[in-house]
Amino acid sequence: MRKLLMSALVSGLIACGAPNGSTPNEEQEAEAPAGLSEEIQREHMALVEPLAPDAHRLINFSLYHVFVEPRAERGRPFCTTLENAEAWRSVMQPAATGGSQLFEPLEAMWRDHSVLLLARFVEADPSQTLRIQGIRRTAAALEVSYQLTEPAPSGGEFNWPIAVQVAKPLPPTIRFIENGRVVCETASTRD
User: Which end of the chain is less crowded, N or C, counting CB atoms within 10 A of the terminal residue's CB?
Assistant: First the structure.
């Protein structure tokens, strides 16, 4: 069964534009793959640009052909810090649909940046109602505050990712604060 699943995954990657014999785990060079629109290339490459310690960038998941594998449950979000490409690959799995050829940020991004990831159970796409209010960094913690109003259920269930890129180094504790309430806390790996 495992071989069948791997075969299906590789076939899906090839169908989605991955070169034959490649996997999303191969190291990327410091440039975006050919065949992407200029807008997607710009947004993908922007993740390598420096960030001030108190600044952040929201990761646009429509760029990457992935889904968050750890499943959030109703009322119990999943959160983690992704401080290198290996950590990204451990929680993000390639998806076999869509038009993007990207599976992960550029390897160069991880030198100076981390990604703070929260996966949340939702019943409709909340992208139009999610507003990152900002981050607050102290020596002990980094807090990501956001406002979210859940839209009316659409008949589905989603493991919705919210990911914020921040500058390294990270303090020991990371908190996600939704509508003024701590919904998830995790530790940085301090690599």
Answer: N
Between CA 58 and CA 144 the distance in angstroms is 11
Domain boundaries, the chain: 51-187
- Residues ≥6 apart with Cβ < 8 Å to 105: 44, 47, 59, 64, 85, 88, 115
Determine phi and psi for 2, rounding to 5 degrees: -60, -40
Sole residue written with tokens 């076939």:
11
Structure tokens at 182: 């701590």
* pLDDT tens for each residue of 59-106: 888 788 788 888 888 878 899 999 999 999 999 988 766 565 688 899
The residues, ordered by sequence, that sit 6+ positions from 60 with a Cβ below 8 Å of its Cβ are 43
